[in-house]
Task: inverse folding
């Protein structure tokens, strides 16, 4: 999945893993569904304002940039 997250293609990921492209697409679909379920579970009833959400995303983006160094 890391290859797909880093802007890799489904076909390229399938070649690198020695898997069928349809299998990779299915894995990606399942992973997306799981992420949605986890997000809904963790973020329910938080009642955050748009400003608070924006601040969280700004923090996450800055952290990702510093970790990439």
Result:
């Amino acid at each position: 999945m890391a290859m797909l997250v880093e802007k890799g293609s489904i076909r390229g990921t399938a070649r690198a893993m020695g898997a069928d492209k349809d299998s990779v697409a299915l894995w990606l679909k399942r992973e997306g569904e799981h992420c949605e379920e986890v997000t809904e579970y963790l973020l329910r009833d938080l009642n955050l304002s748009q400003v608070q959400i924006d601040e969280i995303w700004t923090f996450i983006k800055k952290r990702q940039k510093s970790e990439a160094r």
